[in-house]
Design a protein that fits this description.
By secondary structure, the chain is of the alpha+beta class. It contains 16 helices and eight strands. Strand 4 and strand 5 form a beta hairpin. The protein is rod-shaped, with a radius of gyration of 40 Å.
Length: 500
């Protein structure tokens, strides 16, 4: 949502008033001085130049300084054309205020040298006091203005982020420097002014000078402390709250960069990090639509480790296929067929995941799942058999798709050494399982047709399961791709596990 003309005018006006707010503090010092020393008729002599410099000229320069930002807010310029002015706004504003303050106090403190004391209500000033005031007060005025405008900048950047979605990317400030300057000015300037008065004057004059310094310091430091604290701590608070939300699982967080120092830079990097996490989650969710979510998570976790040339581990492989699927496909429309197949695959996936398996690949109307690779699975052979039994029970107890199609599934299971690795070239790779165990599981799934069974397992799986299940020995058969015969076993999916 673009800012309205009224909002832009309010932002501009607020900056101008904050830029010249030092005038009101300066005028307050003049009033305190007169309250202590009298000579009200001389107030105009000291306050007049302040009106001209700190209010009038400063206001005009502030208008000109804000113009690039004003043009951006009105939609007449790009953010890039205003970004440098944005990040330098506190420094530029404070610099001119310090210059005006130096001129102003050089004039004020020399008045007693060329006007009679009754006119200004003050006896002559010492050289030490003159130099101290001309140096210390511009430093304080600079610090006050810098942090006041920094506080304004935080609100302005938050507004720009909210309405334009843009954040600062240029950082000229230094957080440590800001902190050191704030501490030194707050602690040293009032103390130095008082020490100079102690060694420069005596008697009643000394008391009046110290009283003016103390009263001005109390007011000035109270105001300054408020803006210094907000300027330094508010960006940290914003960042801390955002990090808490991310830690709680929210990746929709994006926060405005509200400072022109390392904290602002850190906030920008935080936004980049969250965007990367959000993209990573999106990729994981996308992977999860095509491969098992746990596989996607493993791929992302191992990203950066490089392609794995190959690793070997014992695992149990499970293949499934729908019996008579070609015939079923002949009397269903494509939409009905896909709907029934998706419904079926969702039913099959649940038991596999529940028992610690990973679905590696969908193969037409079947799938290829593994237990103990790439993710660890205790007692993987028994877990695979339990998953197969649960699949048969789930598939046999329902129909699929809008047409209510009954489907029967065949399952082959084999246990043994499996090779896993990244296969592919260039930017297209896939984690694949290879080896005789994989091939045997696929052949066992096919052999269900000949034996009229629903679950066939290899001898290695039978041995790995021990006495967990009641297996039926079907003898030895010749398996395509093997020279020797293989012993095969069936599992009654309607039966119970053997008692231990």
């Amino acid at each position: 949502m673009i800012a309205t003309a009224a909002e832009v005018a309010t932002l501009r006006r607020r900056y101008l008033w904050m830029a010249v707010s030092i005038f009101f503090f300066d005028f307050g010092i003049s009033v305190i001085f007169r309250l202590v020393n009298g000579g009200w008729e001389g107030l105009w002599i000291s306050a007049g130049p302040s009106v001209v410099l700190l209010l009038g000229v400063n206001w005009l320069l502030a208008r000109r300084r804000f113009e690039p930002i004003h043009r951006f807010l009105k939609g007449e310029a790009t953010f890039e054309s205003a970004e440098r002015r944005l990040t330098q706004l506190p420094l530029l504003t404070a610099r001119w205020v310090a210059i005006f303050a130096f001129v102003l106090y050089a004039y004020r403190n020399s008045i007693s040298w060329w006007l009679p004391a009754p006119t200004i209500g003050l006896e002559g000033q010492t050289i030490a006091d003159y130099i101290a005031v001309c140096l210390l007060l511009p430093v304080y005025y600079f610090t006050y203005t810098y942090f006041v405008i920094s506080d304004y900048l935080a609100g302005l950047c938050a507004f720009i982020f909210e309405r334009h979605g843009r954040n600062l990317g240029l950082f000229f400030g230094r957080y440590a420097t800001k902190l050191i300057v704030a501490l030194l000015v707050v602690s040293i300037v009032p103390l130095a002014a008082i020490i100079v008065d102690v060694f420069s004057y005596t008697g009643e004059r000394q008391h009046s000078e110290i009283l003016v310094d103390v009263a001005s310091s109390v007011i000035g430091l109270a105001i300054s402390a408020y803006f210094v604290t907000r300027s330094l701590l508010r960006p940290l608070g914003v960042l801390s709250r955002a990090m808490t939300r991310v830690a709680e699982g929210s990746l929709e967080v994006r926060v405005p960069v509200t400072s022109n120092d390392e904290v602002g830079e850190l906030t920008g990097q935080f936004n980049t990090m969250v965007e990367g996490l959000r993209e990573r989650q999106k990729i994981r969710e996308t992977f999860g639509r095509y491969v098992d979510e746990s596989v996607a998570a493993t791929i992302l976790r191992r990203q950066g480790e490089g392609a794995r040339s190959g690793e070997t581990a014992e695992a149990t492989i499970l293949f499934t296929d729908i019996a008579g699927f070609t015939t079923i496909a002949e009397y269903l429309t494509p939409a009905e067929l896909v709907g029934a197949l998706n419904d079926y695959l969702e039913t099959v996936l649940e038991p596999i995941r529940a028992h610690g398996g990973v679905v590696n690949t969908f193969i037409g109307d079947g799938l290829f799942a593994s237990f103990n690779m790439p993710l660890a699975c205790d007692d993987h052979a028994a877990a695979a058999v339990r998953a197969a039994i649960d699949i048969q029970r789930a598939v046999g107890s329902r129909t699929f798709g809008d047409q209510g199609v009954a489907l029967a599934t065949r399952i082959g299971i084999s246990t043994g050494q499996v090779i896993g690795g990244d296969v592919g070239t260039g930017r297209r790779t896939s984690f694949t399982l290879l080896g005789d165990t994989v091939n045997l599981a696929a052949r066992l799934e096919e052999l269900n047709k000949q034996h009229g069974t629903r679950i066939l397992v290899s001898e290695s799986t039978r041995e790995a399961c021990g006495e967990c299940f009641a297996f039926d020995v079907l003898g030895s058969v010749q398996v395509r791709g093997r020279s020797e015969q293989v012993a095969i076993f069936s599992v009654d999916h309607n039966g119970q596990e053997s008692p231990s």
